[in-house]
Amino acid sequence: MSYKVSVTREIPDPGLPMVKEIAPDARVNPHDRVLTREELLDYVKGCDGVLCLLTDPIDAEVFDAAGPQCKIFANYAVGYNNIDVDAATERGILITNTPGVLTDATADHAWALLFSTARRIVEADEYMRAGKFEGWGPMMFLGGDITGKTLGIVGAGRIGTAFALKSKGFNMKVLYYDLSRNDELESELGATKVDLDTLMEQSDYVSVHVALTDETTHLIDADKLGKMKSSAYLINTARGPVVDEVALIEALKSGSIAGAGLDVFEDEPEMKPGLADCKTAVIVPHIASATIWTRSKMAEMAASNLTAGLKGETPPNLVNPEAAK
Ligand code: DGY
Q1: Ligand 1 pocket, 288 CB below 6 A?
Q2: Which pLDDT tens digit goes with each residue over 59-96?
Q3: How far apart are CA 56 and CA 8, in angstroms?
Q4: Which residues span the domain enclosing 188?
Q5: Do 133 and 225 belong to one domain?
Q6: Between vectors from CA 234 to CA 144 and to CA 284, what angle results, nearest 5°?
Q7: What's the predicted TM-score (pTM) here?
């Protein structure tokens, strides 16, 4: 049986060879860029399955362009806010993601942002490269302490938990905000579940780890940012729209918070005007999962999900089991 498959952008090995095993004629976007809307609609046309990326907006129009024979869209990401899952379910199309394999890479990266923001690593690096270092100075690049401080976790799921557990060596007090109680954090770290206002008020570092949904859009808004200490830092490795970026820029510019480490942006790949001028922000291009091992595992998982869906089996990482009924 031969399947018609499209891959919306090249992914690392072993992803493409695995896709080619089940769909030797799979069409792969040859450009190192996101497909335009027109191209995407053309790529999915008549497909039995599509391997897509978090940068592809997949909605009813895309599913209809694919056609009624389409079985699966396998997303190359753990987050699937780019996909209208209800529209897929209505059409009996399976949606899958790649959970688990990027937990540590993302949590590690949140720490990298926390350290580089608090200790002003990027600014200091620029200073050295500009040849400005003329000798040690008592007031140079003063930043925030980390050991013994209070860490606030917004969203204590897989990644939030892994991030919090890595604080062990820094003897931090851990607060978390989540709908559910997290026994592991409470027993391992003595962490305390608090409401979001308390977390914002008491934390020295607030790290965001919630999935993007209607409820979490602008969860961190001007009001919540206004509750933070002026010495506190915000880290976001989740999704840009969870934080009101305009309000964040205002908080950074006014110094009402000490800094922010951002991997994700509200209108990715754009930044809201003014963010790039904020010296107390460390800003990187959505690279939290960008380790060689992780990206390769994500590719393997996405290809396995796609293969199972094409064969009529239940993919290992199905997010809408109702679609299979
Ligand atoms: C994901 O998988 O959702 C990540 O954002 C990719 O880095």
Answers
A1: yes
A2: 999 999 999 999 999 999 999 999 999 999 999 999 99
A3: 8
A4: 103-283
A5: yes
A6: 100
A7: 0.97
